[in-house]
User: Fold pectinesterase from Microthlaspi erraticum.
Amino acid sequence: MGYISLSTLVFLVAFALPVVLATDTAPIPEDRSQIPQWFKTNVAPYSQRKGTLDPELEVAEATRKIITVNQKGGANFKSLNEAIKSIPVGNKNRVIIKLAPGVYNEKVTIDIGRPFVTLLGQPGAQTILTYHGTAAKYGTVESATLIVWAQYFQAANLIIKNTNPMPKPGTQGQALAMRINGDKAAFFGCKFYGFQDTLCDDRGNHFFKDCYIEGTYDFIFGRGASLYLNTQLHAVGDGLRVITAHGRTSPNEQNGYSFVHCKITGTGTGIYLGRSWMSHPKVIYAFTEMTSVVNPSGWKENLNKGHDKTVFYGEYKCFGPGSHLAKRVPFTKDVDQNQVRPFLTLGYIKGSSWLLPPPKY
Assistant:
C-alpha cells in the first residue's frame, strides 16, 4: 500500500475546501463615511477580478457591447423595448443599454433568455421608466413597469415608476414599479416610486446601493436574498403603512432582506418596519436611521400568533427617534455583533463571484 506525504495531504485538503474570498467576509463598517472605501475595496471592477468571477460572467464582461437609446433620435433605437428585442436569445455578452435622459412610457420585460443586460442612465439626469399597470389588469406581479427574469442584470441612475393613482385607504391597489426575479442583480442610484407593492424583490440574490424606494403598504415584498446599502425607504399617504412583507415560508430558505446604513422617512407616524405576509420572514435593519415616522412597536402584530415564533425581525445599532426598542413587539430580536455579522457582508448575497460596479455612462 502506497503513502501520501504530509505536504500532498495538505494540498488535497485545501483544494477540496470551498474557497471563501475576503470580499465575502469583510463586514460593512459601522462608520458610514467608510462605505465608499469598503465598496471600492470589495467590489472592484472586472479588470481586477479576472479569474475570481462566475465563468459565464467572465466571458460576458470580456466582450461588452453598447446600445444607445434616445427618443429624439441620433441613437441605435428610440425605445427601450426595441433595444431589448435586438439582444439575441441566449445572449452571452454584457450588453450596456445607454438611455438618454427623458421619460420612457413603456412596460418592459427582460426575459430569462437575455442575461447580462445593464440599463444605464446618465448620472444627475432624469431618466424615467414609467407605466400605469395594475393588478386588476395584469395580476399583481405582472403589473410592474419593469420586470426582469434574466440573470446578471444591472441598473444604474434610473427612476422607475408606476403612475397608477394612490389607492384610497382600506382598498386594494397593487401596482408595481419593479419586479426582480433574476438571480445576481444589482441596482445603483435607482429610485422606485409607487404605492402598494412598489418593489417586488422576489427570487434570487440582489444588491441595492444608494437607492430610494417609496410606497405605502408592503412596498418591498417577495422572497429575495437582498442587501440594501445606504438606501432611503420613504412611506407616503396615510392609514396602515408597512415597509416590508418578506415571503420566506420555511427556516430552510436562504433568503431575507438586510438593510444596512439605510434611512426611514415618511409622512405622519405609525409606519411598520415589516409584517408576516408569510410564516418565516427574515428582515434586519443595521446602522439605520429611523425617524419619528416609525411606529414605536416597530413591527406589525402577527395575525397568526404562531408566527411569533417563526419570524426573524432584527435590529442592530439603529438610531433616531424611531429606533428605540423599549416598546417593540416581543418577537423583535435585538441582535448582537455575532448574530448580525452575516447580514453585513457580501457573503449574504454570495456577492464575491458576481457583484461588479456599474459602468461609466
Observations:
- The radius of gyration is 21 Å.
